[in-house]
Design goal:
230 residues, mainly alpha
């Protein structure tokens, strides 16, 4: 009994220190999220003010349809890859991470293919046949985003949100810059499309710079794949 009590007392300081460490991480992560959300909203608001002066209202309507279709495709095919990396006990293993990355890429190309094929009927369902070309072009973003490094999920797993927040803001700034410049030179809905694609490319490229030495490669671990898909 005394040995058990002694062991418990020795372990208590370690547990308290771990709890304090987790609390600090959670607080810091919340602050980064709050700052990132505020900065992102401010950037989005400013860009909308500029773009509404440069583009005709119908452009925003067409882009809203394209975004709604793309978002619906992503939601209905979500396999929970990010959640698997964050929560799974194997979430730090290269085999698990590379399998998750491979599955994510396959999903991205699947979404892109489905949107490309179904662009016509989807645009007609919204009463905007001209949106079909836009849907097919923006469908490429799904394939691009499939290559996002799992480093982004690893940072989330470790509650280290500073770099990820900065990445999102930089990608958004690039997207906005492309939209505004394109709209100024050639005011059309394609300015919004170009900005969307530029944002996706920037976000993916920056994700591979989040953690030095962190690399993803194609792999397939049957147990990991089963765990992710289920």
């Amino acid at each position: 009994m005394s040995e058990t009590t002694s062991t418990s007392e020795e372990a208590a300081p370690g547990r308290r220190a771990n709890t304090r460490h987790l609390a600090r991480l959670a607080l810091r992560g919340s602050l980064f999220t709050l700052v990132g959300r505020g900065a992102g909203d401010a950037l989005r608001f400013g860009s909308n003010l500029l773009l509404t002066r440069l583009l005709f209202p119908e452009a925003f309507g067409l882009m809203a349809i394209v975004n709604a279709v793309a978002a619906g495709a992503r939601m209905t095919t979500d396999l929970g890859v990010r959640g698997s990396v964050v929560q799974n006990s194997r979430g730090d293993e290269p085999a698990f991470l590379n399998t998750a990355w491979t599955i994510q890429i396959i999903r991205g190309f699947t979404i892109a293919s489905l949107l490309f094929i179904g662009a016509g009927p989807l645009a007609a369902a919204f009463g905007k046949p001209e949106a079909s070309v836009l849907i097919r072009v923006v469908a490429g973003c799904a394939a691009i985003e499939g290559f996002t490094s799992t480093a982004a999920f690893t940072l989330l797993r470790k509650v280290r949100l500073g770099r990820q927040t900065l990445r999102d803001l930089v990608a958004m700034a690039i997207s906005v810059a492309v939209m505004v410049i394109w709209a100024f030179v050639s005011p059309s809905v394609w300015a919004l499309v170009a900005g969307t694609i530029a944002g996706s490319v920037a976000k993916v490229a920056l994700s591979h710079r989040l953690l030095p030495g962190y690399r993803n490669w194609f792999a397939y671990d049957r147990a990991a794949a089963r765990s992710i898909v289920r």
